[in-house]
Design goal:
The protein contains 3 helices and no strands. The chain starts with 9 loop residues before the first helix and ends in a 15-residue tail after the last helix. Keywords: Endonuclease, Hydrolase, Membrane, Nuclease, Transmembrane, Transmembrane helix.
Length: 102
């Protein structure tokens, strides 16, 4: 919509409000009062949510770190350690030049 500048027209604004109406909690009271004729866009129904027990996945994330020893580096290291704990990852790698402990 934004690429075609549709959001700048009245019809585009109504389309945005219709999209908002179909998302989770819908419209708040102010938007309902401002756009009383809004019809939520129908969301597709997902019929089958089967989880395949034999499906495997591997994901790698690369987060560029700042200079080792800086406070930002320490924060990112602590964040990654939190990911390891929360998502039960097996490990994360720090650059070889890292000498400080997190």
């Amino acid at each position: 919509m934004t690429n075609n500048k549709e959001h700048l027209t009245i019809e585009g604004l109504h389309k945005i409000v219709s999209l908002k109406a179909s998302i989770n909690l819908g419209l708040n009271d102010e938007l309902k009062a401002a756009f009383p004729d809004t019809v939520p866009i129908l969301r597709p129904l997902v019929e089958s949510m089967k989880i395949l027990p034999k499906a495997k996945s591997s994901v790698n994330y690369e987060i560029p770190l700042t200079t080792p020893g800086s406070s930002q580096f320490m924060k990112v290291g602590q964040l990654m350690a939190g990911f390891v704990f929360f998502f039960f990852f097996s490990f994360f790698l720090l650059p070889k030049s890292t000498t400080k402990k997190l």
